[in-house]
Design goal:
- There is one protein chain.
- The chain has 16 helices and 25 strands.
- The protein has a domain of 112 residues: 2-Layer Sandwich (GMP Synthetase, Chain A, domain 3), CATH 3.30.300.30.
- Strand 23 and strand 24 form a beta hairpin.
- Helix 1 crosses helix 2 and helix 9 packs across helix 10.
- It has a nine-stranded mixed beta sheet, sandwiched between helices. Strands 7-6-5-3-4-8-9 form a seven-stranded mixed beta sheet.
- The chain is an alpha/beta fold.
- The longest helix is centred in the N-terminal third of the chain and has 17 residues.
- Helices cover 27% and strands 24% of the residues.
- Bound molecules: adenosine-5'-diphosphate (ADP).
């Protein structure tokens, strides 16, 4: 028997990615949009020096291997230092979602056993709402605005200055934990996911290879702006692949609104940006309303995901020369699992068919395996129609949750596949198309209706700003689809017009039987539609449209 002669024990750790920053790319820039709207600029060398100081100081303050440090921060240079400084000290960065309810933030910080917390001074008013519930011992405040420091807090800059010069970097193993994030809880209680160095490194490498299309790859020459907050699933791995490649990083700070983002794109000549569809829909609206106001950098690319990307969004940005790639993923998958990049054969398709495919979630990335099982536990036929539950496995897919008490027996199959809770089908080309989350499916008279398919089609209506479709109880059909629509400013949409608009694309029984116009669709902290809130709001909806006969057809 022949044995491998490779250095198979060489550990894949964030330490390696970090060391490249200073060694090979010392002059590359990291730009952060500060609360006072100024741009803070420094180099990879500065980042490297300060991250090491943070690591040394944390160890000196008593942080031990495997302990968590909470961060309550926007996307900026100091959060990046925490992303590396904490793991370099052997710790685990627990990114707290600042958009959650204060009680929930406190609960999650305590649940993760954070002894240290690093917080932006601009978030002190938020922290004040739950600090009394926290079990942390030390709070370190990053003074972005020179806020007065509260006596119980440590100044981040002071902490860095206390870093012992003789600090020894702890040995890191690839299976050590280095990051932690809770699911955003769109469909249930947040659950803790703990990332290993190995998972994050492999995920970063995957983001850097782009098997199908080099346009989605982050390269050295790129200027990358992660709009996705650093408190969501490792900011989708963008900081890690960015640093690995030595790309210029542009951090939006607290300014995640369309006008500020578009300004930064232009000013810093951003070539790649990533974020959820809500953000991009907002930017599209801003661009349309002020056509002469912004200049989008040439050949810009975006990775959009977190919820379904409407075809209208992909087409909309194409008109501005921006290439949109859809990605699907979850907190439990580090997060990237699939991308909607077209294969060579698909690039021969006519334009409409190509756009249709790009509005799907796409092909699993290398090393992520995906399968779709029907109710009988059998893999569905790859016909683009047969639906079932999407299950995945791979080296950056969670094998369990952090809390051993958590009842997660239904989240993994006996053979170890992760059950995503997403309902999907597979096209003959191997493209995953998500039709719903299990909890959002509409079951009308025993037949499934996909809310995502309807929403995507409705978003292409000229008077619609945003649309959401929910299941509402119906006396005869068990459930029927109700369309909840945010019209464009000064416009209005009615049920008859919407039904006629959708009629060519769907079976009659799929067409919504009711439509309400609202000002805003309630969203989760990650910008996803909170359909559960709408379902509660409209559960007593009185159906007036006589859907009876149509549903039978
Ligand atoms: P939560 O489960 O609380 O929403 P996550 O951020 O982990 O938190 O969300 C993962 C879920 O988001 C997926 O299971 C899927 O339902 C949805 N999702 C992510 N990306 C896409 C996408 N491109 N298209 C449709 N749904 C998506």
């Amino acid at each position: 028997m022949v044995h491998s002669t490779m250095m198979d024990d060489y550990p894949l750790t964030l330490g390696h990615i970090f060391d490249r920053a200073d060694r090979f790319f010392p002059t590359r820039e990291i730009v952060s949009h500060m609360p006072d709207k100024s741009l803070h600029r420094y180099t990879y060398r500065d980042f490297s020096k300060r991250s090491l100081q943070l690591a040394a100081a944390l160890n000196a303050m008593g942080l031990k291997k495997g302990e968590t440090v909470g961060t309550l921060m926007w996307n900026h240079y100091a959060h990046l230092e925490a992303y590396y400084g904490i793991p370099l000290a052997g710790g685990v960065v627990h990114t707290l979602n600042l958009r959650l309810h204060p009680d929930e933030i406190a609960y999650l910080s305590n649940h993760a056993q954070n002894r240290f917390l690093i917080v932006d001074d601009t978030l002190l008013p938020l922290l004040a709402k739950f600090v009394s519930q926290l079990k942390v011992e030390k709070i370190i405040c990053v003074r972005l605005t020179q806020h007065p420091l509260q006596p119980t807090m440590l100044d981040y800059e002071h902490v860095l200055s206390t870093a012992p010069a003789d600090w020894q970097r702890p040995q890191l193993e690839e299976r050590d934990a280095c990051g932690m994030c809770y699911t955003s809880g769109t469909t249930g209680k947040p659950k803790g996911v703990v990332y290993s160095h190995r998972a994050i490194c492999l995920h970063a490498m995957m983001l850097g290879i782009g098997t199908l299309d080099s346009r989605v790859v982050i390269k050295h020459a790129d200027t990358v702006l992660p709009v996705v907050p650093m408190f969501h699933a490792n900011a989708w791995g963008i900081p890690h692949v960015g640093i690995m490649a030595g790309a210029k990083l542009v951090m939006p700070g607290p300014y995640m609104d369309p006008a500020n983002l578009l300004m930064l794109f232009e000013k810093e000549n951003v070539s790649v940006s990533v974020g959820v569809p809500t953000i991009w829909l907002g930017m599209l609206k801003e661009l349309k309303e002020k056509p002469d106001h912004y200049k989008i950098p040439q050949n810009m690319r975006t990775l959009v995901g977190g919820s379904a990307v409407p075809e209208a969004l992909i087409r909309g940005f194409e008109a501005y020369g921006v290439f949109v790639v859809q990605g699907w993923g979850m907190t439990e998958t580090t997060p990237l699992g699939t991308t909607s990049l077209l294969t060579r054969d698909m690039q021969e398709w006519d334009e409409d068919r190509q756009f249709e495919a790009r509005a799907m979630q796409g092909m699993p990335v290398p090393f992520v395996e995906a399968r779709i099982l029907n109710g009988q536990g059998q893999e569905v036929v790859w016909d683009g129609k047969s639906i079932g539950e999407l299950q995945v496995r791979g080296p950056w897919v969670a094998a369990s949750y952090y809390d051993p008490e958590e009842d997660s027996s239904d989240k993994w199959t006996e053979s170890g596949w992760f059950r995503t809770g997403d309902v999907a089908c597979m096209t003959p080309e191997g493209f995953v198309r998500i039709t719903d989350r299990t909890k959002d499916l509409i079951k009308s008279g025993g037949e499934w209706i996909s809310s995502i398919d309807l929403e995507n089609a409705m978003m292409a209506h000229p008077d619609v700003q945003e649309a959401c479709v929910i299941a509402v109880p119906h006396p005869k059909w068990a459930e029927r689809p109700l369309a909840v629509v945010v019209p464009k400013p000064g416009r209005s949409v009615d049920l008859t017009a919407m039904r006629s608009f959708l009629a060519p694309k769907f079976a009659k029984f799929w067409l919504p039987d009711g439509l309400v116009e609202i000002d805003q669709i309630p969203r989760s902290s990650a910008g996803k539609f909170m359909k559960s809130v709408l379902r509660d709001r409209y559960q007593d909806w009185e159906w007036t449209h006589p859907a009876e006969d149509e549903n039978e057809s």
